[in-house]
Specification:
Distance between the termini: 30 Å
Keywords: ATP-binding, Nucleotide-binding, Transport
Shape: globular
EC number: 7.4.2.9
InterPro entries: AAA+_ATPase, ABC_transp_ATP-bind, ABC_transporter-like_ATP-bd, ABC_transporter-like_CS, Oligopep_ABC_C, P-loop_NTPase
Structural class: alpha/beta
CATH class of one domain: Alpha Beta
Pfam families: ABC_tran, oligo_HPY
CATH superfamily of one domain: P-loop containing nucleotide triphosphate hydrolases
Organism: Marinobacter guineae
Strand content: 15-25%
Length: about 325
């Protein structure tokens, strides 16, 4: 296998909730104590994104999907771990040294109503990244590039003088995609790019992303909660729960033979027309808080197959005979 384009190793991200030093100090049992709390959003994630693929990261709200996206893009600093791009570690680079990677890596945000500057015309929105990364380009080169990317996403170049509020959600997201493509990136992080759009528009935007991948040789890290989109779009799928990767497999394998109990529960919730589909798996309990993570496997409180080892020992990813990578003691021991 060729070396991955993006490699994430032991990634962790914590958000401090403790406040100032004075707010951390409490008086208990006749003694002063310092109490620190943090949201453990990502907890030791290892992922590799191969060139030309679309790696989908799925899971319920609060599992750390968007935090991974923002950390990979440098919008958040990791608390621990490393991020490598084409063999070069990038999470610890100074601003000037990271500039070449800013052009190679672009992001499409979830909400097209918030990701476009309301004070800038569409022309200015698309000009900004081009002029920043190509300061030596002439006005004619910039104009031609803007027209090219607008045509590629189905936007009329005459729209350039208009503002974002004049467009629908689907049109705004096309503009956001054009902005990401304007600097000819290799790698795009798409953070739920169609979830804020009408269902009738979602397929158009998804097909646009697939066409761009084929014509430009793009690599995607695609964050979503929609399993129907994953089955249609993804090359491989990483299933997350409470900041950890539960299962990782190619799309066909995962949907045909899910191995982790959480993945099985997720896939059983997809509406289907067949009468012989398996019964919907109802998980017991509630999702634990990421402030106080449970010991051992983070899923053990809701898992019907959990035993004492699951409650004490954190499972690592193992490769099954079917090709899935699963973090589950029950699968490892043959109980599932």
């Amino acid at each position: 296998m060729t070396s991955p384009l993006v490699s994430i190793r032991g990634l962790e991200k914590r958000f401090d909730l403790s406040g100032s030093l004075l707010e951390q100090i409490t008086f208990e049992g006749g003694r002063f104590r310092r109490k620190k709390e943090a949201v453990h959003a990502i907890n030791g994630v290892d992922l590799e994104v191969q060139r030309g693929e679309a790696l989908c990261v799925v899971g319920e709200s609060g599992c750390g999907k968007s935090t991974i996206a923002r950390t990979v893009m440098g919008l958040l600093s990791p608390s621990a771990g490393e991020i490598h791009y084409d063999g070069q570690r990038i999470d610890n680079l100074e601003r000037k040294a990271s500039l070449p990677y800013r052009r190679k890596m672009q992001m499409i945000f979830q909400n097209p109503y918030a990701s476009l500057n309301p004070r800038m015309t569409i022309q200015q929105t698309l000009e900004e990244p081009i002029r920043f990364h190509h300061p030596d380009w002439s006005p004619i080169q910039v104009r031609d590039k803007i027209h090219e990317v607008m045509h590629s996403v189905g936007i009329d170049p005459d729209w350039g003088s208009r503002f974002g509020h004049e467009f629908s959600g689907g049109q705004r997201q096309r503009i956001a995609i054009a902005r990401a493509l304007a600097v000819d990136p290799e790698f795009i992080v798409a953070d739920e790019p169609i979830s804020a759009l009408d269902v009738s528009i979602q397929a158009q935007v998804l097909n646009l992303l697939m066409d761009a991948q084929e014509s430009r040789g793009l690599t995607y890290l695609f964050i979503t909660h929609d399993l129907a989109v994953v089955e249609h779009f993804g090359t491989r799928v990483a299933v997350m729960y409470l900041g950890r990767v539960c299962e990782l497999a190619d799309t066909k394998t995962l949907f045909a033979t899910p191995r982790h109990p959480y993945t099985q529960a997720l896939l059983s919730a997809i509406p289907k027309l067949e009468d012989d589909r398996p019964n919907h798996i109802r998980l017991k309990g509630e999702v634990p808080t990421p402030v106080n993570l449970p010991s051992g496997c983070v899923f053990h409180g809701r898992c019907p197959y959990a035993n004492e080892r699951c409650r004490q020992e954190v499972p690592g990813l193992i490769t099954t005979d079917g090709g899935n990578q699963v973090a589950c003691h029950a699968v490892e021991e043959g109980r599932l």
